[in-house]
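Input record, target 12 of the design panel.
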């Protein structure tokens, strides 16, 4: 009778330790669907969900990660075309992984770096690209919103600033 209790206690301790490490790592380790990792874990899951929407060409849902007032104006297909230099329908995203997620010192800005593997269907070439998704929020209790638009648009110099 004592042996099963010891085995159970060891397994529970190991599982608890693993989940604690997964939480402290910001969700870098597998969390088995549990909402662990705090804000970094949430941002990792959000970035993966965004990439899944891109992979399955659900551009309306992909735009929904932006602030509500920007959702209608975000042109996800254009931004994807800028990133990969091909039209979205000629792109097969084969896989993606989060490299890191980090927050700034104010906990109001964050970035998630992804490694994306895609096949360009026009010439059957497979490419790997790194992508950084930027997020922001108004205060620590507010939801996170993506700033993909700012990340991928051409930079235009401000005429009022010295170059």
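The sequence produced for target 12 reads:
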């Amino acid at each position: 009778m004592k042996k099963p209790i010891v085995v159970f206690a060891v397994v529970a301790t190991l599982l608890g330790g693993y989940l604690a490490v997964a939480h402290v790592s910001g969700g870098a380790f597998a969390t088995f669907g549990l909402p662990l990792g705090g804000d970094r874990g949430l941002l990792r899951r959000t970035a993966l969900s965004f990439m899944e929407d891109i992979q399955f060409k659900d551009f309306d849902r992909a735009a929904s990660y932006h602030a509500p007032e920007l959702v209608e104006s975000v042109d996800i297909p254009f931004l994807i075309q800028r990133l990969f230099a091909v039209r979205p329908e000629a792109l097969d995203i084969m896989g993606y992984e989060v490299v890191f997620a980090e927050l700034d010192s104010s906990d109001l800005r964050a970035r998630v770096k992804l490694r994306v593997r895609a096949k360009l269907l026009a010439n059957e070439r497979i490419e790997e690209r790194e992508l950084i998704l930027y997020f922001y929020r108004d205060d620590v209790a507010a939801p996170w919103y993506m700033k993909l638009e700012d990340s991928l648009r051409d930079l235009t110099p401000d005429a009022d600033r010295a170059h």
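Helices lie at 2-24, 38-55, 59-63, 76-84, 148-152.
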